[in-house]
Design goal:
The chain is of the alpha+beta class and about 400 residues long. Helix content is about 40%, strand content about 10%. It is built from 13 helices and eight strands. Strands 1, 2, 3, 4, 5, 6, 7 and 8 form an eight-stranded mixed beta sheet that branches. The longest helix has 28 residues. The protein is globular.
Length: about 400
């Protein structure tokens, strides 16, 4: 995450320089230890101090605030997790589960685990169930795939069958499929990402008004969230999630930049980082285009295209079946955003140790990682794998991982 912060700072550093100011830079995280820690880790890359703010050369770190709300009320970033009516909708997907179960599995995967060149996904999963010691179906393969990715990333010694490339590829393929399947459908998209999309659109419209008045908009908004947040946002922006089908990798991100084009039209550029690599922005971020729009999508057109998905805070409460005003407060409503500013923001002088880049033409205020919102720039980045929701889930995760791990002597 620190490398990721350095990469984003190289692209957007001219907007905020290396001195943190809450009026131009805001960070929002879900209320989960790993997302909070990842946010802080990335911020150490954004704001590396030239000198220790604590007058201690051994402590080269600048504290930056990270905001959060209770997970049970966070309908902005939890991808339906705080929406009681979201999970029952999954039963509407039973026909797609049956179809996927009956599909033919790749011959190499069948051969590796069943010693035959022909089998269905159902046959493949039955064989996997026998290995791990509990039932694994199309509906639950995502949990196994999640644990497998986590354990492979941390070099855990696995049972031999889980080192077979064809078997691993098929588990991850099915895991990616079910991962995105949960966000198929208008209601599913509204409940999982509709409030986030609505908040983004409203924020960008507010920023344009602030610029016209000469007020200072926020420049960068970071969201530290989850693989489900990335997947739900991609699905909310495009029903086909721009062709991404694999489980979102570590440091996956959706990047949104608000630009003002030469003719004065506000437009949004979207990029997706779907690799753990943090070498350079241009190398790891892929531009994606909203269906029905262009690479730089006019804000008014974007609002129209996403109107069937975007829902307000009142609407999301109603959809989720929670009391009115049960949603988290507006994450961009604070008292330090109205400082005077020239109509066209003037880049600050480079700071010592900061690698500066020139501003893209017409790019007023920035963007960066997973979900970008306010201040003309938004970055949503994912902290993925090994989700912990309850004591029972923790115990189940332990069982899943033990079933994958090679037996100890």
């Amino acid at each position: 995450q620190r490398a990721m912060g350095i990469m984003y700072a190289q692209r957007y550093g001219y907007l905020v320089n290396s001195t943190f100011r809450s009026s131009s830079f805001n960070v929002r995280s879900t209320d989960v230890d790993r997302t909070l820690i990842s946010a802080e880790s990335q911020l150490s890359g954004w704001f590396p101090p030239a000198v220790s703010p604590f007058n201690d050369p051994a402590l080269m770190w600048r504290p930056v605030p990270v905001h959060t709300v209770r997970e049970s009320t966070d309908r902005l970033l939890t991808a339906g997790g705080a929406c009681p009516n979201f999970h029952p909708l999954q039963q509407n997907h039973s026909s797609s589960w049956q179809t996927q179960t009956a599909k033919a599995a790749p011959p190499a995967a069948c051969q590796a685990i069943l010693n035959t060149s022909e089998c269905t996904n159902g046959d493949f999963l039955a064989a996997i169930s026998a290995v791990v010691g509990h039932s694994v179906t199309v509906q639950t393969i995502g949990q196994l795939a999640d644990a497998l990715v986590c354990m492979r990333a941390h070099n855990v010694t696995l049972k031999p069958i889980f080192t077979s490339a064809p078997v691993v590829a098929q588990i991850l393929d099915l895991g990616g499929w079910i991962f995105y399947d949960k966000f198929v459908g208008t209601l599913e998209r509204q409940m999982s990402s509709g409030y986030l999309i609505s908040t983004l659109l409203g924020s960008w419209q507010t920023i344009i008004k602030q610029l016209k008045k000469g007020a200072a908009p926020r420049r960068i908004q970071l969201f530290s969230a989850h693989d489900t947040t990335v997947a739900s946002l991609l699905s909310g922006l495009d029903q086909q999630h721009f062709g991404f089908t694999a489980l979102p990798p570590y440091t996956a991100a959706v990047i949104m930049e608000l630009h003002v084009l030469d003719d004065g039209t506000p437009a949004v550029w979207f990029g997706v980082k779907y690799t753990p690599d943090d070498s350079s922005f241009d190398a790891v971020v892929t531009n994606v285009t909203i269906p029905g729009c262009t690479a730089y999508c006019p804000l008014s057109t974007l609002a129209t295209l996403l109107s069937s998905v975007a829902v307000t805070s009142t609407s999301i409460d109603q959809l989720c079946g929670v009391p009115a005003n049960g949603c988290d407060p507006d994450p961009y409503d604070d008292d330090d955003q109205n400082e005077p500013l020239l109509t066209t923001p003037t880049p600050s002088k480079p700071d010592s140790g900061r690698v500066e880049t020139s501003a893209p033409s017409g790019f007023y205020a920035s963007a960066a990682a997973l979900l970008a919102l306010a201040g003309l720039g938004v970055i949503v980045f994912a902290v993925v794998r090994c989700r912990r929701i309850s004591r029972d889930t923790v115990r189940y995760e332990a069982v899943k991982m033990q079933s994958l791990q090679e037996d100890s002597l």
